[in-house]
Design a protein that fits this description.
three-stranded antiparallel β-sheet; elongated
Length: 572
């Protein structure tokens, strides 16, 4: 149940005309009063003898009783209280009780013999009511309505529990501003999936992903087709910016601009600058990076993304809160970049994952920027490498990257949950589900190829890989052997050995993380971890490790002692 408080009005009659009218798109049905300050207020909706003027004069009476100079300039308090779409339809009596509790909790009409304001609750739809009040009490004083929005939210949480309604996660004031009712109706009228505010927020987020300067940021906004206005100080210093969609116009035909801070708290220009201007001290957590398959190729960018995401999992789980917060915020940039460069069959789910995770990228734990540079560089690499084709090495490394990101986002769920960040944890959980669906779409073909190869392995080789599995991860062996993905893992273990690695050592290292508990298929996860850490091609549709991969693996083996899988830090 969401109350949305607005107390900036100055014309009671105008608001009542809207509430009792047909709505901007004929969406209002049967407008009528469900409750009022005295329980006897005239109802212009169902009483043919009552008029809007009657109700307006009754509500305004304490205001008009004051001397003209003593009347507040803006005295109309208004809130809508909306049920969740999954909730049952509430009766008028239930909505009346809700209205009375909201005005009491907010200080508009505290009850129990205390002086209150005059108010009325109007219902013109099944799922919500509107409460209108005038902010002068019967004794001529202003009500104690400090932080009435937060107080209405707190009361709504209690109402949800008592009435068995959908329980909304409590917020902490770091969420982006919700689209207004007018913005939502405008989006419907224009045939948009999201409101202009939401489209702009998504576009600006993508422009920020991995960006390293103001010039680059504004170039990306312009390339995305946005209209841009910059706020410049007399000294010539840039103070801020605002953006608009070219086809989003007001009634006068002018573009509707939104400042960055009105799109989301972390999209103001000063907060964006923090991403690339923060210093960094200490060792670089991304020192252990995979061999690049091909500079600036989509597959190489996805491999580096997988490596950076895996290192970030460890930091979110065990690092300082400010550093963990920075990595969670940077994970949002990676999701935005991956969604922007994804192939058609994964694009929708990745875009929805990024859209959902936006809420999880902010909290009151201020991010200590600079430590997140590996993830931000991964986002930059994804953008600069361009769109992936969705097949071959591009498609397989996309599955690899999504797999690693899934565990990073799951780590973010746990981190937010431990901090009591209910909305952020829920948003990250939604993003993880979208990533799971995107992974299934991306991984089906490359894992199918590996599965086929595994099924064609000779019996002695399968038995050898089974022994390797049981020796390296005895606690997981039987579960893995029962999974269909075992054959893909067996083929990967054969590839690991063919490339000159110690398969048992790499497998034990890859499995030595508790994140496997959240995996639907442990064998799938181990396939990608092994192929990434061993530098193997992600796609094996040619049925073998190609010569280039063999040369690369041989080069890797020559850089470290035989039988060693490399340093443990940062490995899955």
């Amino acid at each position: 149940m969401i109350p949305s408080v607005n107390e900036s009005g100055s014309r009671t009659i105008g608001l009542l005309a809207y509430l009792y009218g047909p709505g901007k798109h004929e969406e209002h049905t049967d407008p009528h009063l469900v409750a009022s300050f005295d329980g006897m207020s005239p109802d212009p909706g169902r009483d043919p003898n009552a008029t809007l003027k009657d109700l307006q004069q009754l509500l305004d009476q304490p205001v008009m009783a004051l001397a003209r100079h003593a009347r507040p300039a803006k005295y109309v308090w208004h809130t809508s209280v909306r049920a969740d779409p999954t909730d049952r339809i509430l009766s008028d009596e239930e909505w009346a009780s809700i209205a009375q509790r909201i005005v009491a909790a907010t200080g508009i009409d505290p009850g129990e013999g205390q002086p209150g304001c005059r108010w009325a609750a109007v219902r013109h739809a099944d799922d919500h009511i509107h409460i209108v009040a005038t902010l002068v009490r019967e004794d001529g004083h202003r009500p104690d309505d400090y932080r009435s929005g937060a107080r209405a939210q707190a009361e709504s949480r209690l109402i949800e529990k008592e009435l068995g309604l959908h329980e909304v996660a409590p917020g902490d004031g770091t969420a982006a501003k919700r689209p207004t009712s007018a913005e939502r109706h405008k989006a419907v009228r224009q045939g948009r999936e999201h409101t202009a505010r939401e489209e702009l927020r998504e576009t600006v987020r993508r422009a920020v992903a991995g960006v390293q300067s103001e010039t680059e940021f504004f170039d990306r906004l312009a390339a995305a087709g946005l209209l841009i206005r910059k706020r410049v100080a007399p000294s010539g210093d840039l103070l801020g910016y605002k953006v608009a969609l070219p086809d989003d116009r007001n009634k006068d035909g002018e573009p509707v601009f939104y400042p960055g801070a009105r799109l989301a708290p972390d999209l103001s220009l000063p907060r964006i600058r923090e991403r690339w201007s923060a210093g960094f001290r200490g060792p670089d957590p991304s020192a252990d990076t995979p061999v690049r398959a091909a500079p600036d190729s989509p597959s190489a960018a996805r491999r580096r993304t997988a490596s950076a995401a895996w290192t970030a999992v460890m930091i979110v789980e065990h690092g300082d809160d400010a550093v963990a917060s920075a990595h969670i915020a940077a994970a949002g940039e990676v999701l935005d970049a991956l969604a922007a460069t994804s192939a058609a069959h994964t694009r929708r789910e990745l875009r929805d994952a990024a859209f959902a995770f936006e809420r999880a990228s902010r909290s009151h734990v201020r991010a200590e920027r600079g430590h997140d540079r590996a993830l931000r560089q991964a986002a930059r690499d994804l953008v600069q490498s361009g769109p992936a084709l969705g097949r071959g090495e591009d498609g397989a490394t996309t599955a690899m990257a999504i797999d690693m990101l899934f565990f990073l986002i799951t780590a973010a769920v746990h981190w937010h949950a431990k901090k009591g960040h209910a909305q952020q944890a829920d948003a990250a959980r939604q993003a993880a589900e979208h990533l799971r669906s995107a992974y299934q779409a991306a991984a089906a073909q490359p894992l199918g190829v590996l599965y086929g190869r595994g099924r064609r392995l000779g019996r002695p080789l399968v038995q050898r890989q089974t022994s390797v599995l049981r020796g390296a991860v005895p606690e997981l062996a039987e579960r893995i052997l029962a999974e269909p993905g075992w054959y893909a893992l067996a083929a990967t273990l054969a590839d690991v050995e063919a490339a000159g690695h110690d398969a048992a050592a790499l497998l034990g290292d890859a499995a030595g993380r508790r994140e496997l508990d959240t995996a639907e298929s442990v064998s799938d996860v181990l396939v990608w971890r092994l192929r990434r850490s061993a530098g193997l091609p992600a796609d094996t549709s040619d049925g073998m490790i190609n010569g280039h991969a063999e040369e690369r693996s041989a080069g890797q083996a020559g850089q470290r002692a035989p039988g060693r899988s490399g340093p443990r830090r940062g490995r899955p």
